Structure formats: structure tokens, C-alpha cells
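Hey all, quick one. A colleague (J.T.) asked me to put the NAP job into the tracker so the inputs and the C-alpha cells live in one place instead of scattered across chat threads. No bug as far as I know, just bookkeeping. Sequence used:
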Amino acid sequence: MDKVAIVTGSASGIGFETALALAREGYHTYATMRDIKKGDKILEITKKENLQLRVIELDVNNENTIKKAVEVILDEKKRIDVLVNNAGYFLVGCLEDLTISDLKDQFETNFFGVVRTIQAVLPTMRNQKSGIIVNVSSVAGRIGFPVTPGYISSKFALEGLSESMRYELFPFGIKTIIIEPGVIKTNLFATLKKVTKPDSAYKEITEKVMKGLLMMSEMGTPPQEVAKTIIKAVASDNPLPRYPVGNDAIMFLEAKKDKTDIEFENYIKKELFS
Ligand SMILES: NC(=O)c1ccc[n+]([C@@H]2O[C@H](COP(=O)([O-])OP(=O)(O)OC[C@H]3O[C@@H](n4cnc5c(N)ncnc54)[C@H](OP(=O)(O)O)[C@@H]3O)[C@@H](O)[C@H]2O)c1
């Protein structure tokens, strides 16, 4: 039987590599993106490697495009085995500098976009009694950090959602997993949305954290590593709830595990303020 995979945000970075990796594993892959004009590169590789990959439109903020994409897939393939919720963007700015609208937009894509897409595939997966949902969170979904509270809280919300739906869906044979990359070398940093008020009280910390993030992004883990982890998790009969990716993610999560909240806060403060 042909296995079918959907990836959101496949125009670049982790989504691009994951869609290709799934197609190379033999999945009929729907590399979805909000602007299909960005699909030329993935289609060129598809043709060269003779893969089963199609580019279709899906904007996670637009219910109609999600509905239409799922209709097309079910019409063509009659099933959905893997959904990778990857689309997202990076909002940077301290809480007092952000507007409610900045925060709502961040949640619209990073959290509600995931909810919308999951709800659109669940009836099919439940009827099949099988499927796996892969939610691309972040190490930022487990660890608070200054200057990125909007992004971090959207990923914390995604972690809570994923952990809860895992219980709801396992009786129907549907698996849920969370991917927690550290800093990955992708477009995320070039396309981030930075918000600072002209008279911001947080200019110094914002610039310091931004500088550190941009430096780290240059040395980030390649997105292919995230794709490899997703392939391994999807192939597992009993996938773990969470998969960190990258040495930085593993280091931070290990440090958090071994420390009390106060000890961990002091560790982050030392990294940031000394
Ligand atoms: N890079 C990192 O360090 C890192 C670390 C941890 C987690 N992550 C997560 O990994 C995921 C992928 O990010 P990336 O690093 O691969 O960055 P990226 O190259 O910027 O990819 C993000 C993708 O999401 C798409 N997207 C944004 N809004 C969308 C929408 N409304 N509907 C559909 N697609 C949309 C973008 O498409 P457009 O080209 O049309 O904007 C882009 O292709 C994100 O969820 C991010 O939070 C990244």
C-alpha cells in the first residue's frame, strides 16, 4: 500500500528537507507551501531523483487552503499516514514591546495553524486506525528565554497540545510526537519578525540576545539532521513523545533535567548576563 505524507511549510529549511527525506523513503509526499511559486527547487530535485512528491498550496492560517489540500490528497490517494506540522516563524521582542496583535499573529501560525491542520486530517486517520502526527516544536518549547517570549510561549502551547492529544489519539492507533530542534541553520533567522519600540527599555538585552542568536544560527545544525530524526521517529513502532535534535538542544535539556528551577535560572542568567 502507498503511504502518504503531508509536510507544511515545505518551501524552505526543515520542511523542505523533511519532504524530500520522506519522498526518498518511498512516501507519496505532499510538500505543501503557502506560495507554490517557491516549489521550483524541490520539484527540480523530485524530477532528478524520480521521487513521488507533489507541491500543493496550504497556508496554515487559511482554513480553505487546508480543506482543499486534504480533499485533493484524499481524492488522489484515499489515505494520510504522516502529517508533519512544520510551518512557523520567529517573533523576536520583549513582552512590553510586543502588541497583542504581534502575539496573536505568532500564535495564529505557530499554534492555531497546527491545530487547524491536525483537525483536518484526524477523521481520515481515525477511520484508518493509523497515522502519525509530527509537531515541530523547539527546545524553546521547554525553556523560557528573554527577548523571545512570543515564540517561546507559542511552542510551550504546542508542547502541551501534543502531550495531551497523544493520550486522546493512541486508542485510535494514531501516534503523536514532538520534535525539539536546537538552533538549526535555516531561513528562520533571516525572516524573523523583530519588534522593538523606538524608546524601548529593552534595547540592550534585545540587541545582545539577537547578536547571540544570529551567531549561533551561523553555526547551527543542518536541517537535514532534523529530517533524519523525523524519518527515524516515523519508522518506529513505538515512537518516543519527544525527540531533541542538535547538541545544543540536548545540552540545554540535560542541564534542565539535572537542576532545580532556581539552579537552572541561575545557569541561564550566567550564560546571558556575565
Ligand atoms: N531554525 C531553527 O533554529 C529552529 C529551531 C527550532 C524549531 N524550529 C521550527 O522549525 C520550523 C521550520 O522552520 P525553519 O527553521 O525550517 O525555518 P524556515 O526555513 O523559515 O521555514 C519556515 C517555513 O514555514 C513557512 N510558513 C510560515 N508561515 C506559514 C503559513 N502561514 N502557512 C504555511 N507555511 C508557512 C515558511 O514559508 P514562506 O517561505 O512562505 O514564509 C517557510 O517555508 C518552524 O516551526 C520553527 O519554529 C526552527
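Adding what we noticed when we looked at it: Residues 8-9, 11-15, 33-35, 38, 59-61, 86-89, 109, 113, 136, 138, 181, 183-184, 186-188, 191, 220, 223 surround NAP (CB under 6 Å). The radius of gyration is 19 Å.
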